[in-house]
Design brief:
With about 400 residues, this protein is of the alpha+beta class. The protein is about 50% helix and about 15% strand. It has 14 helices and 13 strands. It has helices at about 5-15, 20-60, 80-85, 120-125, 150-155, 205, 215-220, 240-250, 260-265, 265-290, 290-305, 305-315, 320-355, 380-405, and strands at about 65-70, 75, 90-105, 110-115, 130-135, 150, 165-170, 185-190, 195-200, 210-215, 225-230, 230-235, 255-260. The strands form three sheets. Strands 1, 3, 4, 6, 7, 8, 10, 12 and 13 form a nine-stranded mixed β-sheet that branches. A two-stranded antiparallel ribbon has the order 2-11. The longest helix has about 40 residues, at about 20-60.
């Protein structure tokens, strides 16, 4: 065994001449342990919220989405686009059309985004998992066209989940300018009835602004033929999303943009990454403050073991070897705090996952979930361990060198 490490290991558990050194060492381990526990739990909770948000978007956003870089709409009959449909990795291929419209229900009006989709939209996304109501997902039949609004949009219009009167949809005519004297003549209108369900993504971007309708209804409303604003894809479960995305992008060239789910919600996930980074930096600062206890503990240990150090010097030990003893001592304190903190943090996360100990809110069911979500990632645990050991080493390096120079001439 390495001699400096062996001696440091003995010092860690041996009784000191002054009991205060043992107490300060114990406090140092506890401080590092609590800071480590906080880092593990905080990063895991942020991961849990991120996974929860991903699940919501997964139920509405497609696996891959193709949009034009040259304009808002393009023809789905384009040869390049149709070639994507025949790729073996593509399981569902669907054109969608999103446009701004004005909605009116009785006396209430608001602008919204109408998204025209095909009847197999349930196969493209997990829309069934975010539908609420006693009806079913249906966009049209031989009698009427149906609209499925977001939960907040429903509240703003005051329709209720099952509305009897239709929602009137107004879209500007492409071939006419708005006539102030007769503005109604500048819009085409349509009516959407209730299928008895609404959707709730639990993201305001969708719930307060979107209404789903059939692609045929939206095309008729805007006088389009085969135009779409996006092509949405679902891949086979065995397909590698990143590789397929790259192949499609190479096939389509710069005229189109192929986005995965993260890129479709780039702003949301970027904000969550920034929040995670800020939390990590803030907790690292707290860890740095906790490491000051190690400085005090090592400083007192150097003074306490001055006679031992002089004995080692007389036996031929160099100042560098003696200094490494106390460096290892400080690092062992950091390692002890890191190990106990990580174990305690993982245990707390495991309890939260299975039993939901910490609740959201005051017990009333006003949130999407009742308890804090937790997801432990191996990379985060490794990052926390490396951070604790690095800060512990840097925190004690200067005090050890200083005291060794002053006390061991």
């Amino acid at each position: 065994m390495n001699l400096p490490f062996y001696i440091a290991w003995r010092y860690l558990f041996s009784k000191k001449s002054h009991n205060a050194i043992n107490i300060i060492s114990g406090i140092s381990v506890c401080g590092i342990s609590l800071a480590t526990l906080a880092m593990v739990c905080t990063l895991s909770v942020i991961n849990g919220f991120q996974e929860m948000v991903e699940q919501f978007f997964t139920a509405f956003d497609p696996e891959l989405k193709i949009t034009s870089t040259k304009g808002k709409k393009f023809a789905i009959t384009d040869a390049q686009i149709q070639s994507i449909k025949s790729m073996p990795e593509v399981e569902v291929f669907m054109g969608t059309l999103e446009k701004q419209v004005m909605l009116q229900y009785k006396e209430r009006q608001m602008t919204a985004v109408i998204k025209g989709v095909e009847d197999n939209f349930e196969q493209l996304t997990a829309i069934d998992s975010i539908l609420y109501g006693t009806g079913q997902f249906i966009l049209h039949d031989e009698v009427a066209d149906y609209g499925i609004p977001g939960a907040e949009l429903m509240t703003i219009l005051g329709t209720g989940v099952e509305f009897i009167d239709p929602i009137r949809v107004y879209a500007p005519r492409r071939d006419r300018t708005i006539n102030a004297a007769n503005p109604a003549n500048s819009f085409t209108t349509g009516r959407l009835f209730s299928p008895g369900v609404i959707f709730a993504v639990n993201q305001q971007e969708y719930d307060a602004n979107y209404i789903l309708a059939s692609l045929a209804f939206v095309r008729k409303l805007f006088n389009y033929q085969d135009e779409v604003t996006a092509v949405e894809l679902r891949l086979h479960p065995q397909a590698n999303t990143a590789q397929v995305q790259k192949r499609i992008q190479e096939k389509l060239g710069n005229n189109f943009k192929v986005m995965n789910r993260y890129e479709q919600q780039e702003d949301v996930f970027r904000i969550m990454k920034v929040e995670k980074l800020v939390s990590y930096l803030f907790l690292t600062f707290i860890l740095l403050i906790a490491s000051f206890n190690i400085m005090g503990s090592i400083s007192m240990l150097v003074i306490d073991k001055k006679d031992d150090a002089m004995t080692l010097r007389n036996l031929g030990a160099s100042n560098r070897l003696i200094g490494r003893i106390f460096l290892f001592e400080g690092w062992l304190i950091s390692a002890a705090g890191a190990v106990t903190g990580i174990i305690a943090g993982l245990a707390l996360c495991l309890l939260q996952q299975h039993f939901g100990i910490i609740k959201l809110g005051n017990g009333e069911n006003t949130f999407v979930i009742d308890t804090y979500p937790v997801s432990v990632e191996t990379a985060d645990v490794i990052l926390v361990a490396a951070t604790v050991l690095a800060i512990g080493f840097l925190a004690i390096r200067y005090p050890v060198r200083y005291f060794c120079r002053r006390l061991l001439p």
